[in-house]
Design brief:
The protein is mainly beta and about 120 residues long. The protein is about 0% helix and about 55% strand.
Length: about 120
C-alpha cells in the first residue's frame, strides 16, 4: 500500500483570481500494488478557497480520480486516470497522465578502476 498527502497552498499573481490571496488546495492518494508492475488507487484533488475564508462547498473544487500506476522499468513510471468533479466549481471530467522518472539522489558510485593520465 502507498499513500501520500500534499497540503498545497496556491497563489495567482495575475488575472481575476489574484485578488483572492493564498488558497488551500490539498491533494491525496492511496494505492495498492497488484503486481510489481501495476498499482491501482484513488487520487483526490481539491481547491477549497482562500485561507481563512474557504469557498462554500458548491464553489470548491473537489475531484476524485481512479488511477493506475505502471512501473515500466526501475527508473520510469506512467500514471493515468479518468476522474470526476463532484461540485459545481469543478470540471466534471478530468483525464490525466504523468510520465515519471525516478532519481537516486546521494547514491555513491564505486570508484573508477582506471587511472587518470
Amino acid at each position: 500500500m502507498y499513500w501520500s498527502v500534499n497540503p498545497a497552498f496556491d497563489k495567482a499573481y495575475t488575472g481575476a483570481e489574484a485578488r483572492r490571496g493564498w488558497e488551500f488546495a490539498p491533494d491525496a492518494k492511496i494505492s495498492w500494488n497488484f503486481t510489481n508492475v501495476v498499482a491501482f488507487g484513488l487520487e483526490y484533488y481539491s481547491g477549497l478557497g482562500p485561507v481563512g475564508e474557504f469557498d462554500s462547498f458548491p464553489r470548491q473544487s473537489q475531484q476524485f480520480v481512479p488511477a493506475f500506476d505502471l512501473n515500466v522499468s526501475p527508473k520510469w513510471e506512467i500514471n493515468f486516470g479518468i476522474g470526476v468533479g463532484v461540485t459545481g466549481g469543478t470540471d466534471h471530467m478530468l483525464v490525466k497522465a504523468i510520465i515519471g522518472r525516478r532519481f537516486e539522489w546521494g547514491k555513491r558510485h564505486p570508484a573508477s578502476t582506471q587511472k587518470s593520465p
